[in-house]
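To illustrate the input format used throughout this study, we show a single complete record. The first block contains the structure-token representation of the backbone; no residue identities are included at this stage. The design step must infer an amino acid for every position from geometry alone.
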């Protein structure tokens, strides 16, 4: 599990994405979101906290190998940290793209 503190802008961006696109069960404080990287899909389990902190609890990597679906649970800190950073970059890029489209549209 990794806990990271973000700037207010980054925290708001990620929390907005989690509440709009994330999946969460009743009485569940965390959200699950998907992210595709190359030929792999990652399902990230994230939990917003206080003081602009977000925890990435775990990730599950899935891929197809010889026609069979494979899964790998990721709990190591380094890959979790990298996945959280990739998610932030992806969201910032998507947000910037929306702003650009609004300006030119």
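Output of the design step:
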């Amino acid at each position: 599990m990794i806990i990271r503190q973000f700037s207010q802008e980054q925290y708001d961006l990620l929390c907005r994405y989690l509440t709009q696109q994330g999946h969460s069960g009743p009485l569940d404080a965390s959200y699950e979101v998907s992210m595709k990287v190359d030929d792999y899909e990652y399902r990230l389990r994230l939990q917003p906290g206080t003081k602009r902190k977000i925890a990435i609890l775990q990730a599950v990597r899935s891929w197809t190998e010889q026609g069979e679906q494979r899964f790998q649970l990721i709990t190591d800190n380094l890959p979790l940290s990298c996945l959280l950073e990739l998610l932030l970059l992806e969201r910032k890029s998507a947000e910037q793209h929306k702003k650009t489209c609004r300006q030119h549209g």
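Structural context for interpreting the output: The longest strand covers residues 53-65. The beta strands are 2-5, 31-37, 40-48, 53-65, 68-74.
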